[in-house]
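A quick aside before the break. I want you to see a complete sequence-to-structure record at least once, exactly as it would be stored in a machine-readable document. Don't worry about memorizing anything.
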Amino acid sequence: MFANKKILVTGGTGTIGTLLVKRLVKLGSEVTVASLDNPDRAKAVFGSSLNFHRTDLRKKSNCINIVQGQEYIFHLMAVKG
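That is the input. The structure line, written in tokens, reads:
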């Protein structure tokens, strides 16, 4: 179902997001991760098999840009307080 699909995972470097992203990559999805996390940490976890965008999705313009072209979106991002 998710093979060859463009999928955005917000919060993809968190506990649940990491598991989901790894699974989607294994299924052959074209995964984009949006996170406030450090890009180096994401590359250490996932390698270069996905697109990583360090972005703040609390800003409407960032949301609009990141979702364009995606076929599925898994919204797992949370605000640390």
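Two observations worth writing down. The chain has a mean pLDDT of 88. The first strand starts at residue 6 and ends at 10. We'll return to this after the break.
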